Amino acid sequence: MNKPRFALPFLSALTLTILAGCTMEPKYDRPALPVASDWTTSKGVDAGKAQDIGWSQFFNQPEMKQVIALALDNNRDLRVAALNVDTARATFQIDRAALLPTLDGTAGETAQHLPGNLYSTKATGPATYQQYSAGVGVSSYELDLFGRVRSLRDKGLETYLATAATQRATQITLVSEVAEGYLSLAADNDLLKLAIDTANSQNHSYELTKRSYDQGVSNTQDLVQAETTVRSAQADIAQYTRQVRQDVNALTLLVGAQIPEKLLANASLDNNWSFPATPAGLPSDLLTRRPDIIAAEHTLKAANANIGAARAAFFPRITLTGSAGTESGSLSNLFSGGSGFWSFAPSLNIPIFDGGVNQANLDIAKDTKKIEIANYEKAIQTAFKEVSDGLAGQATYGDQLKSIQLETAANQRNFDLSQMRFKGGIDSYLNVLVAQRSLYGTQKTLISTKLAQLNSDITLFKALGGGWKK
């Protein structure tokens, strides 16, 4: 039996055909930046990169760092994001493998018994035949002449990269949410302590007023006003007690595990909180810093690649099926000379009429790309807004906090003077109550402003892509 001589020329032609294959993907051009080229404020802007500042450097309070570390180990959303990356990676490997032929090895035995009453066995009687075979084969390998398979591979790659970037965005969001949750707990702890102290002070004042009233010195209005302030403070205690418990519940959900009590017990904004200055750079830097923008661009590239696959569907598809091996009636002669066999079965599929399915798929692919362009631009605009808000907070919260501190100090002096004038018989107790309420109000405002300033710093850090590195 002559050995097949077509193999080497065929393989050479096949290789050249694959290498010469074209692609139908449109050329990718990054959309223009849909925002201004610089921030609305330049305060705090320099050439540094927020993403180079690790979260453990930025959040430098020991207890908060430990809570964040617990969240990174246990948060379920982060686990799901990591598993999504693994799934996308495996899907890409499947898409990439489609570019190569699948080679399978086969081995088998066939036994057949024929009765003696058949025409072919009348002379010999009943007979049993055995046949052995071994070989390799390629099944339905598509020649990627028009880039359909490569476009699907590119789509899979971009989807995988988008998923990986989304995982980073999930971590950055988690780190900032845990930090903000911890600060909310600290602020509510301070508000609860303030409410308790104020209630104790007002309750003492109420007892004095009631005693004075019983002696006929104070009037009914003074007594009622004093009781009103006590009840108001008691209501605040109930409110802030509830908020503290809810803050702990929210943090526990974010962390995904029970948080040791020692990490939360002393949370307070009085612990000299401050975060390092965050370098903003330029708006164009966000394209490589923000993982959500990176993910949006990879999703856009995946949509662009899908157009190539949709275009290629209009063109013929050539698939190859073939096998080669040995075959013999006895196992001992299976690999003897002359036992070889081969088969080669190319097929051509030419789209003629599909009821408009291919055109509809192409229209969908083009519209999907337009949608992803809009999503990409929206991601950039959102990032620009978040950074601008953070910079505005960085530029103004310091002045606001200083003014409220001065206002609180002035209210404290006014309250002290009102008490002195009341004790000296110059003013009524109503003036003391008014001064006390003003002081209590500015003290609460001071705590909420401190919280807002720290949250603004966290927002800026997150908006600039910080929080991925440790």
From TrEMBL:
It is found in: Cell outer membrane. GO terms for cellular component: cell outer membrane. Gene3D superfamilies: Outer membrane efflux proteins (OEP). Residues 1-20 form the signal peptide. GO terms for molecular function: efflux transmembrane transporter activity. It is a lipid-anchor. Its main location: membrane. PROSITE patterns: PROKAR_LIPOPROTEIN. Keywords: Lipoprotein, Membrane, Palmitate, Signal, Transmembrane, Transmembrane beta strand. Belongs to the outer membrane factor (OMF) (TC 1.B.17) family. PANTHER family: CATION EFFLUX SYSTEM PROTEIN CUSC (PTHR30203:SF32), OUTER MEMBRANE CATION EFFLUX PROTEIN (PTHR30203). NCBIfam families: outer_NodT. This is Efflux transporter outer membrane subunit.
